[in-house]
Amino acid sequence: MRFYTLALVFLLLTVILPDLFFYFKLKKHRANPLLIILNFLPAAFFLVAFLVMKFTSDENYNPRTFNTYMWINFSYMLVYIPKLIYILFHFLNYLVNLFLKEKIYLIRYAGVLVAMFAIILMAHGAFVNPKNPQVRTVELAVEGLPEAFRGYKIVQISDIHLGSFGGRQSYLEPAVKLINEQDADIIVFTGDMVNNYQEEMRGWDPLFQQLESRVGKYAILGNHDYGDYSSWDNPAQKSANLDSVKQNIRDFGFTLLLNQHVDLVRDNDTIQLLGVENWGKPPFPKYGSLTKTLKGTKPGKPKILLSHDPSHWRGEILDYPEIALTLSGHTHAAQLAFNWYGKKVSPSSWMYKEWDGLYEDNGQYLYINRGLGFIGIPVRIGISRPEITVIQLIPAAKE
């Protein structure tokens, strides 16, 4: 995958500047020359590592290599985020001393504590949360839902990003067990099975084929599944990669919906499940077509739509009132989210109006799943644990 130049420049600056700060501090206190050398060792490692990643990641098909790159990113965070926190508190302490015209060190010591807390939080997010998925249950009252579908159970999963696991199935085995415990009528997957390449899917068939539901398993594609985040020798190579991703998803046991729909039948009643290809706001592509997806659907029947990117909901879906429920993923809750006095806080909110959980607008619902996998950095910090969503449908009360 592309390691973008601006990201590289940012990373290099955040490596060099903190170590220069500590270099001058050590020099001021006439520290042992060995300490000064040790201070620059992480910088030397990350400078080389990031340059290697810049020039090799674009054509990296090996999931284990990609996984190694992500752990390098995590190591960088573990070393430099605490350093940056301490430097911030150090300068705050300096400004307070200037204002008070006396020397105090309390803020600097607080910086040490906050930096230590950040280390613990990141370590927990890397080594505990990713293998501990959370089941979130929602009961939805759907207008016009046939009585036969009362209690109909949909289990949603999303954003697995197989290449990020480096082939380690231990990441997903607990999720498969939990999914099967939910006694689903249908299982739906809302996109991003891979990071970029079909090679990421090798060897995963037996695990996915263990997933059980009464009616079926359905899937759509996400923005990462199209191979758009790499350079290809020619369009045919990219197309072949996409064809393989699609076939592998089918081999995993899913019915792949590509701007298509299927009937879900219970007793003598029917609702419809729709699956649209990825539709996103720039820079994300628009492959999806609701017009094609809705063609041939039955009027008056409640419709459930699988659409990977939640921005599609306000961008287009709300113009179709017959779509009672949209299921999305994509945001990962930024892999960093917290409850702050009862309010969810995440960098995802900077990009998306709707980024996690359930939303409603004039009787139409959107549910955004946080995903099971990760990308870029192998962490799930705070409340951004991997998610399995259980949605139970009931008919809305008639007024």
Short characterization:
This protein has nine helices and 15 strands. The protein has about 400 residues and is an alpha/beta fold.
Write the layout of secondary structure elements.
Elements: H1 5-28, H2 33-56, H3 63-100, H4 106-127, E1 134-142, E2 152-157, H5 173-181, E3 186-190, H6 205-208, E4 216-220, H7 235-251, E5 255-256, E6 260-266, E7 269-275, H8 290-294, E8 303-306, H9 311-315, E9 323-328, E10 336-340, E11 343-345, E12 357-361, E13 364-368, E14 381-382, E15 387-395
Parallel strand pairs: 1-15, 2-3, 3-4, 4-5, 7-8, 8-9, 9-13, 10-14
Antiparallel strand pairs: 2-15, 6-7, 10-11, 12-13
What does this protein look like?
This protein has 399 residues and is of the alpha/beta class. The protein has 2 domains: 5-127; 132-395, Purple Acid Phosphatase, chain A, domain 2 (4-Layer Sandwich). The chain is 37% helix and 20% strand. The protein has 9 helices and 15 strands. It has helices at 5-28, 33-56, 63-100, 106-127, 173-181, 205-208, 235-251, 290-294, 311-315, and strands at 134-142, 152-157, 186-190, 216-220, 255-256, 260-266, 269-275, 303-306, 323-328, 336-340, 343-345, 357-361, 364-368, 381-382, 387-395. The strands form 3 sheets. It has a 6-stranded mixed β-sheet with strand order 1-15-2-3-4-5, with helices on one face. It has a 6-stranded mixed β-sheet with strand order 6-7-8-9-13-12. A 3-stranded mixed β-sheet has the order 11-10-14. The model has no long low-confidence stretch (mean pLDDT 92).
